Structure prediction request, 299 residues.
Amino acid sequence: MSNLTTELQRLFLLDDQQWHSQKPDESGNSADLAAGALTPAIVAKCLAGETDMAMNLISPDGMARVMVVNFKKASDWEAVANLHQAVQDELDLPAPALSVSGRKGYRLWFSLAEPIPVAPARNFLKALRRRYLADIPAANLELRPDSDAPAFIKLVPARHRATGKWSAFIDPSLGGMFVDESGLEMAPNMDRQAGILAGLESIKPVEFQRALNILATEAEPDSEVGQLPKERSANLPGETASQPGLDTGGSASKLNVGSNYSDPKSFLLAVMNDASASARARIRAAKALLPYFAKSTPE
Prediction:
């Protein structure tokens, strides 16, 4: 198995990953045909440009371990870059993988360390869109998996049948280079592709739940954005049901600071210094502490 196949497996593929062959139908559009379990040999053919295939993001038992935001317009690069940075700065998530299309546009790939039911994955993507991508027309954006569209997506890198160009994972600092000309004229160096992916991490369950909590602050009152099924969320590492939450707009953010505090200042100091708390909670605690540390102005 190649280094790139190993990295794709580590980040994106399910243990029982299914794939669909892609062949043009009578009208020339791509038709997805179920082809069974994805093997390293099939992946190798795809990476060599010998076959067109798409992987099913949902397992037979309704689980997902990768979520994709597909930007159809290369002109939306600024929104792509902003989202790529915001999920790290504001949601405390590992950097998603970034790929450029063989036709036009970009994709952000969110890898999950453990598969989750598809409903929370869809809720997460919808919340990302509501919070960060509200200005992008629906026609220019695809979320996968999504309840309104098939959960198939082409593996990267791959050669686009119509343009002959290649999709590829790229360094985010180079994203602006593809605004006018998307895709690569030649197949990317597969070892370098593996190197890009090797530097990425999957989202751990506790990190995913924390991000859902933050995103729930802007969710509608009856939304279930911040809810993982009880059997998935009850025993997340480092979290217990008794831990107090700092105000995040309606969804408790799990903290590891205990409950022995006689005054607000000491509690807020503990939250600000809690490395396991979200950046959002720690920043709010720091802001609330400012009056305690304000320097007196000279007369």
